Amino acid sequence: MIMNKKNINIGIVGLGQIGSRLYKEILSKKNDIKIKTGTNVTITGISAKNINKKRSFKFNKKIFFKNALEISKKKNIDIVFELIGHSDGISKKVIEHALKNKKHVITANKAIIAKHGDYLSLLAEKNKVNLEFEASVGGGIPILRTIKNGLSTNKINKVVGILNGTCNYIISEMESSQDSFSNVLKRAQLLGYAEPRNPKFDLNGQDSLSKVRILSALAFNKKISKNNCLMDGIEGIEIEDIRIANKLNYKIKLLGITEIINNKLFERVHPTLIKKSNYIANINGVMNAIIIDGKPVGQTILQGEGAGPGPTSSALMSDLLSVLRGNIKYPFGSPYNKRKKISFFDINQYLNSFYLRLEVKDKRGVLSSISKIFAKNKISIKNLIQNPDKKNKKSSVTIITHENSEKNYRNLIKNLSSNKFIIKKTNFYKNREE
Amino acid sequence: MIMNKKNINIGIVGLGQIGSRLYKEILSKKNDIKIKTGTNVTITGISAKNINKKRSFKFNKKIFFKNALEISKKKNIDIVFELIGHSDGISKKVIEHALKNKKHVITANKAIIAKHGDYLSLLAEKNKVNLEFEASVGGGIPILRTIKNGLSTNKINKVVGILNGTCNYIISEMESSQDSFSNVLKRAQLLGYAEPRNPKFDLNGQDSLSKVRILSALAFNKKISKNNCLMDGIEGIEIEDIRIANKLNYKIKLLGITEIINNKLFERVHPTLIKKSNYIANINGVMNAIIIDGKPVGQTILQGEGAGPGPTSSALMSDLLSVLRGNIKYPFGSPYNKRKKISFFDINQYLNSFYLRLEVKDKRGVLSSISKIFAKNKISIKNLIQNPDKKNKKSSVTIITHENSEKNYRNLIKNLSSNKFIIKKTNFYKNREE
């Protein structure tokens, strides 16, 4: 009763952890798919770098294509999964060609959607096919579908989330094991929670920012923003910061936030001090959590596993069934030409209270010298905790400030960096009081 | 690009708080609906008991029908909202006639879906129209859509939730104000959180059980169960229970639970002691929260406002857009004839640890007499706290047991009720250790 076509052929490009799991998932759920959508699905094309790599499943070598683009061109393929994950290059070519050849595309690739999502959605709309990317944000949490369908006509004004499981694992694990960033990162790499070669894009906030940009476009019905964002990662967090935050009744979390302030878009990713009593302070390990403020629905929270083959293949399968249920949907919920550009909030105007930890020489006049810099920048101090380390003739000074503008903070940091008493770069986090 | 029909007419049956809010919501979101679905929607029929009742909006009296059934018969109506809320009678007739006349139906009515959902879904499938009921469970939380679409091919084995905002408000408020059940109920009624005339179905667990039955059918792809369930409400909870639980590091929550144990369905609703560190113990006020365990996705949590015109109209609008996006969906995700009956878990075999509070005479031999009853039923005691009330010559005895079967507990309660030392009926809750 639902489908147009009774037999649908699938191509999978990329057979890493995710692609392999998806391959097995589709085969094992063939009957369930048939019941729910009336469609027989068959995998008729797969592509990966190396046909001979040892894999956990067997496949007919006739359906293997060394050149990924062949999958996008093959006549007997209706749906293409792009699971390579680059923001350009072969990933972009595979998706472009598939859409132009009127094949539906499903991808887990946040980098390409954050960068080329508008262009690709227009291409999908023009060719009357679906472009689905539920797995690109929040792993197994059906967050994009929730915004597009579950909360479809709500006026959303803010989305806040822990969007990167790697970072959340590292911060939680630093706290529970009282171990250093670099040791915990090594463990995360061994456990498969962090990229073994180049974990940079997880750790520096780029991965979260891509997700924030996709969320903004959906939540606010706008084009994907290209502006410079406030982006800060977790590489600078030291165990000492976590300890002090803990004493002050805070947790440190890497948050991705997008909101509308005076009709302007403000997207940001940064480590944030959050009161322990706050829901999101208690999300630990590789979990993701996302809070949506909308009208008339109020606050909706979604929580679940943010990464890994299981959750990701769950999201990919939900996209597959969405395509199989038959109609063509706008990839971002609204047509391309109705999604306007939105002007960007001036980061300098952003008001927040801040946490700073300075390592200073243990000398007379230090506190007075530092206080002067704060006063000069019109920033007033709410809490100051000094921890002397007599043996090494130094002292750690933790300061929580009253609310002030980002502009003043940047000047403050600049001024502090040239102060003769300060031994090393200042650790510096936003302090979200909510 | 999406719709078959460019102009869609809507009828609304029931103009209480929910219906009125929906009426205004549809009018104010006409343009948004047009953008997202390409459809012009017009409300061409409304029905309520009294045309002259004072309302917060004006309407053309020509579209008012005193007889609700006229809406289901009218030619120029494509979609009918049923918002009366009875489990039978006029609600059933309105939905039946609308489906038979090939109109899509959207309802917020959990009672009718829990009772007649299978029959009505078959009727919808036969007539190739949609029957949507997102608002029937979890208020504004898009929980049904999440199970049907977001987690579509996951193997779900358990769903646990706080499903009734009225009960959760009352329990939370008893704790924070240290006030009695009856006083807090009165306040809840004044605030509109509890039915002013007959709050019974919220308080006795029936409302939560209806929601549990809908969740089971969707989560496990089964027919709606008709079996007797373990159902207990919050009417018996005393402030003393909340205080003692608090001292023991527990919160009391009314949970709705459905799970598969050895291929059998076990549905239940009961007040439950939950460790304070547990996520769901910290859901307060009118909030709802639902935890889904699925494979391969892992654990997914959804939280949001569970009732009220805002959240409910959000869910109704998501149903409307789902219908307008065009294709016909199975109301329960799978076709009627593929949803099998499932055999029911024997409640007597259910193992749990229990909390009991007895009020006993302050006499010699009491504890020994009570202990004997526990021993006779093979139930061993984990914690016993005695609180003497010398002035009134009585004593409160709180007992937490080791795990045992429901059958043994029922016998225990029966035996305790005939004990000469016990002054009043025993308060008795499940103790979920997770």
Brief digest:
The structure is a homodimer. In chain A, the strands form two sheets. In chain A, strands 6, 7, 8, 9, 10, 11, 12, 13, 14, 15 and 16 form an eleven-stranded mixed beta sheet that branches. Chain A has a five-stranded parallel beta sheet with strand order 2-1-3-4-5, with helices on both faces. Chain A has 14 helices and 16 strands.
Layout: helices, strands, pairs:
Two copies of one chain form a homodimer.
Chain A: E1 7-13, H1 17-28, H2 30-37, E2 40-47, H3 69-73, E3 79-82, H4 89-100, E4 104-107, H5 110-126, E5 131-132, H6 143-150, E6 155-162, H7 165-177, H8 181-190, H9 200-203, H10 206-220, E7 230-231, H11 239-247, E8 250-261, E9 264-275, E10 287-295, E11 298-305, H12 309-324, E12 351-361, H13 366-376, E13 381-389, E14 394-401, E15 404-405, H14 406-417, E16 422-432
Parallel strand pairs in A: 1-2, 1-3, 3-4, 4-5, 7-9, 9-16
Antiparallel strand pairs in A: 6-8, 6-10, 8-9, 10-11, 12-14, 12-15, 12-16, 13-14
Helix pairs in contact in A: 1-12, 4-5, 5-10, 7-8
